[in-house]
Amino acid sequence: MSSSPTSPSFAYRGRLAPSPTGYLHVGHGRTFWTAFLRAREAEGTLVMRMEDLDPDRSRANYVEAAIEDLRWLGIRWQEGPDKGGPFAPYVQSKRTAIYIAAWRKLLQRGCLFACRCSRKDLENALGAPHEQTQAGTGGKADALDDEPIYPGTCRRHSGYVPQLPGPTASALDTPGPINWRFRVPDGEVIEFVDQNLGPQRFVAGKDFGDFVVWRRDGVPSYQLACVADDAAMGITEVVRGADLLKSTARQILLNRALGFKDPAWYHCRLVVDHNGRRLAKRHDTLSLRTLRQRGLTPMKILSADLPVET
Ligand SMILES: [Zn+2]
Question: How many angstroms does the Cα of residue 154 sit away from the middle of ligand 1?
Fold first, then answer.
């Protein structure tokens, strides 16, 4: 059943990448448990990386809570913020230099354009606020996977020539207080075989548009930080929720532009509530913490027959 290579020279490296923006719920717990099992079955290394780049929502107490809750579930990792390791630091807010280097490389390769659109500009160009934003779960995919297709305003004004850096762009050394977007190759089909969900297919410019890689508030986007870290940490398989499938398509484009090798992908189906809605961090009744306080055991949580999104 396992697709893990058996060659002794193959060193599996997986990762757990929680965002400390709330308490982890049962869905996160199951996805992280899968990541743990995959690494263990491959006799590989599991890395814990804290994805705390969202300055508005990340909280130190959730960092502690995530580590505690995952340990309680029985998940063990070999490298991480609490353990150290050869690729430290394992906290994204301390890895800015790596992200700036990736941003610069993309800029020099002519993959980016500066975007001066405000949120209001985007809403006006796209019509009403996007439905997905309201239905968001507070997870990573909330503002990412379902990010509305960028209307192209600044791309049109950027004088962009494919494969050629802009006249002044490559001279820039730091991103500055502006959004930078990755120009996607419109119409290109991005295909990959997910280790769990099978063949996946997305069309650039249709399923997702020019996405932000650097935010005007001074932090890289999830997409950029994720590929830069997965490459720097030698991750060979990414296990995460199916809400990030479209992010994977974007990250394949980033990996190609940066010259990084794609890891294998394994997306877990999302646990939903009895109304079929995705679980949200703000809904506390299914947080690992609450379930534990109610006396449930890890075994019970991991083996429960929960509905999943199909
Ligand atoms: Zn713009």
Answer: 4
